[in-house]
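Database export, one record per block. Field names are fixed; values are copied verbatim from the stored entry.
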Amino acid sequence: MTMAFAIDEINENSSQWLEDQFQLVHYLQKVNFTTSFGDQVSFPENREALPIYDVMNWLWLPDGRTKVQIVGEVKRSISRGEELTLDEDRIVCNSKSKRATRSVCSERYPPGTRMARKKGQPKCCFDCVPCSEGKFSNTTDSVECISCPEDFWSNPQHDHCIPKITEFLSYHDPLGICLTTASLLGTFICTVVLGIFTCHRSTPVVRANNSELSFLLLVSLKLCFLSSLLFIGRPRLWTCQLRHAAFGISFVLCVSCILVKTMVVLAVFKSSMPGGGANLKWFGAMQQRRTVLVLTCVQAAICTVWIVTASPVPHKNTQYHNNKKIYECVVGSTISFALLLGYIGLLAVISFLLAFLARNLPDSFNEAKLITFSMLIFCAVWVAFVPAYINSPGKYADAVEIFAILFSSFGLLVALFVS
């Protein structure tokens, strides 16, 4: 009984003590007065006294001692919030400079850069890192850089994006102007020579030179020169489809004429020998036309299948240069392109071999030597074209192909007609 009475007395005293504590807190929350120094003292609802801090300036004296003096204060009040008061005239810096030291680890960084925090350092310490290529930041103290849209690239300052440079072999480009001029010059020369042959078509010299094949050869050379113009200008669907077809068919027509002329020269030489007259019946005018037509139709079939199955199309390429968008024609089918070039090369090699075998004919058959020389130039140009074309990016691939077309066409024109 005595122990139970003691426990009840303790519980009663504890309850009384807690009640007194709550009453004390109640009255403390109402405390609000101003000291003689002008500081406001009060206890908000969270029961914490509003803080007041002194800002101290430490001085190192010449004799080695230190001196501390108050230069301001930080205080918080219910009505005004936190306030900082400084007496800047009393602030003394321990350095030769009279300017106050800035309380930051790193300066602010401009547009075109981003913040990279230093590991293990305070949050205000960071490195200023320039934006990488293709990214930008247009605000101060940017946390990260933004990637430019697909058709844009960052300017040198990386503070905004600019449109990518558009590149293709243009008629306004100096290279395009030179190639266009050469193409038109070759076309003009072919036209002049064709006019001369037409005016003198009844003369023995023109007739002995197989006038019909010569006319067809000049027309095909003219088409070869003109086909190079399809490689200049911004690629379109129709130019991409037509450029290789026109170039391939016109060159096969040209080489077919040369091949038939070579066979006719050999047939005429053999017919001049005893018992060789029967050879000419296989190389009459009708047979010559049919041979040229059949050989050309094979190339036309290759081009038709190529366009129908895997047509060349214009393409915007951004792989060669990040700051450029290069417009070019993709061939669509590499196999078809290889067949087109391979067929031209096959006819050229056959013509070269036949002309080479006939190189030692008498001077009256001098045409065989000219054909040999022209085919040698033609084959050398196109053998050099393949590696140069593969290793040339963008508009320079088109320029290489135009160079090959023009050089081989001029080589045939000079060797067969100017000589």
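Remark 1: The chain has three domains: 37-101, 113-163, 174-418.
Remark 2: The longest helix spans residues 237-271.
End of record.
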